[in-house]
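Action item from last meeting closed. Structure (574 res):
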């Protein structure tokens, strides 16, 4: 009897111990679940805070998560799998915390370096989330949501089913929301254009099966989200500790943002630098019609070479002060070097013409009053724009107008809407060439901007003129002009690359006794010393062959004209 009683007591104690162990296990699991939820809320709050800095991306991660969930439900996934996908998709862009805002929100075309930096957000995100084990597939989604089905994505170049299914779904949701949302550089795309773009990229950018599912959701109008579950509502419903964390993260990010922006003002002119300036102007253009002005200060290099950089800085500072006064109601920024960008809101073409005329006159007066910067002048390309025009398109047109001005004498301004697109004929080139030759021969005082050392070039020209008199040798002055191909609008970086390739080709081809220099924005001058005249076309052909060998661009068609310096001398003597 006692033994039976003892056995029952032992069993009871064991049951109590089991119950206690189970209670402790449940409590541990509950605490772990609370910690996981708390960590997930912190990361979602961080993701939302990052997006909240920019009105154009606010709510993006939430919408991507919801679209991804709709796709997964249509594919027959379980509710648990769908919830896991939503958590992973919500954090797909968390790596953008490591990318500067001014690059993320840049309205104009990204440079190769900037684009490569943005692409790193996938790797940064994967690194941030690598220790988060309670959300399956979260690292895959962060790292691989920019992979393409055809293998041309990043960062790993995966293709087809090599790309994790969670990342393929998120990629579709991410692309749709990007096209369906307003951005700093454009408005949301029309629904029919979005559908066409998605359909066109079936099997290229997107998984074919996922594409078919998503097109079905579009056609059945099932992509309308319930705003009651938006991140803002979730944040408001969180406990006090989560609100405290949210405020802390927001304060930290805001502080970082303010510190970054102070670094993007030019101390010399007081104007915003390129990245910030372009962003501000693009945002302004969303609300105002007006005129975008691409302005260049000519002869800065000449001033720096002759009088030193202090003189050049003084010219830039004077121009910066003027631009600040002329853009009180608008915006101005320094793109870099001698280039500036202005936006004048709510103005007519007549008002802009009067404003630019006054600006040019005042700057000319300032330059003439200072002997060290007297060579400075202005050239500007203008583009009238209306609300709805994209920043990138207006920027390219203003750049094109400036290029036109540079080809036609500088020290003036021109509207894109008024420029003549016909390439200058050989007669006008020859006329320009004679004017240059006269200017060189007279005193070497031509005020145009030469990228290379103009004084040395003019000395060589005068020396060869003396050789012509003494020895009757024959020399030729050649003008090489980089003309734009029909119906093309090259970007400024493409122009500079083409010019660099042309200069390299000239230097590789001409002899040591020949001389070359850059004359204007799109022209080079070459002095050929005693060539056989019939061989000049062959010399120029070799230069152009070298250029086409180096250049991948088809936006330019180099041409040339030449004059015999002997004949010009004989004409002058008559």
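Sequence:
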């Amino acid at each position: 009897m006692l033994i039976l009683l003892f056995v029952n007591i032992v069993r009871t104690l064991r049951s109590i111990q089991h119950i206690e162990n189970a209670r402790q296990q449940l409590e541990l699991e509950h605490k772990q679940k609370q910690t996981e939820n708390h960590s997930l809320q912190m990361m979602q709050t961080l993701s939302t805070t990052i997006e909240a800095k920019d009105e154009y991306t606010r709510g993006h991660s939430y919408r991507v998560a919801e679209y991804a969930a709709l796709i997964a439900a249509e594919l027959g996934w379980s509710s648990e799998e769908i919830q896991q996908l939503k958590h992973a998709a919500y954090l797909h862009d968390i790596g953008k915390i490591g990318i500067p805002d001014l690059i993320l929100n840049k309205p104009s075309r990204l440079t190769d370096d900037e684009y490569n930096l943005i692409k790193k957000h996938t790797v940064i995100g994967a690194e941030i989330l690598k220790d988060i084990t309670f959300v399956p597939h979260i690292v895959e989604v962060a790292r691989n949501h920019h992979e393409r089905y055809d293998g041309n994505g990043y960062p790993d170049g995966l293709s087809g089913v090599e790309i994790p299914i969670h990342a393929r779904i998120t990629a579709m949701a991410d692309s749709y929301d990007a096209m369906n949302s307003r951005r700093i550089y454009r408005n949301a795309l029309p629904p029919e254009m979005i559908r066409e773009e998605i359909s066109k990229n079936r099997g290229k950018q997107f998984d074919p099966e996922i594409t078919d599912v998503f097109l079905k959701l579009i056609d059945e109008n099932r992509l309308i989200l319930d705003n009651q579950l938006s991140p803002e509502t979730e944040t408001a419903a969180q406990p006090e500790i989560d609100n405290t964390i949210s405020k802390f993260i927001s304060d930290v990010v805001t502080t970082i943002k303010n510190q970054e922006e102070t670094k993007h003002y030019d101390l010399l002119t007081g104007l915003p630098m390129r990245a910030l300036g372009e962003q501000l102007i693009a945002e302004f253009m969303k609300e105002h019609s007006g005129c975008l002005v691409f302005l260049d200060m000519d002869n800065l290099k000449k001033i720096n070479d002759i009088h030193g950089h202090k003189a050049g800085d003084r010219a830039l500072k004077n121009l910066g002060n003027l631009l600040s006064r002329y853009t009180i109601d608008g915006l101005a920024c320094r793109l870099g070097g001698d280039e500036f960008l202005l936006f004048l809101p709510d103005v007519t073409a007549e008002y802009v013409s009067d404003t630019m005329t006054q600006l040019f006159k005042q700057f000319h007066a300032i330059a003439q009053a200072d002997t060290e910067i007297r060579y400075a002048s202005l050239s500007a390309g203008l583009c009238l724009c209306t609300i709805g025009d994209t920043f990138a398109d207006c920027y390219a047109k203003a750049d094109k107008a400036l290029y036109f001005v540079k080809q036609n004498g500088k020290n003036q301004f021109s509207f894109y809407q008024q420029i003549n697109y016909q390439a200058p004929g050989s007669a006008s080139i020859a006329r320009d060439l004679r004017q240059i030759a006269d200017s060189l021969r007279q005193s070497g005082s031509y005020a145009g901007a030469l990228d290379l050392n103009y004084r040395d070039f003019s000395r060589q020209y005068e020396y060869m003129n003396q050789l012509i008199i003494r020895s009757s040798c024959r020399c030729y002055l050649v003008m090489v002009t980089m003309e734009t191909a029909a119906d093309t609008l090259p970007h400024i970086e493409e122009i500079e690359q083409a010019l660099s390739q042309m200069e390299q080709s000239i230097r590789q081809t001409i002899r040591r006794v020949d001389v070359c220099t850059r004359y204007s924005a799109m022209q080079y001058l070459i002095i050929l010393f005693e060539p056989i005249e019939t061989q000049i076309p062959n010399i120029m052909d070799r230069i152009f062959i070298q250029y086409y060998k180096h250049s991948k661009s088809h936006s330019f068609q180099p041409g040339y004209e030449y004059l015999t310096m002997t004949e010009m001398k004989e004409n002058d003597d008559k």
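Note appended to the action item: Strands lie at 290-298, 331-336, 339-345, 377-385, 413-415, 475-484, 515-520, 523-529, 556-564.
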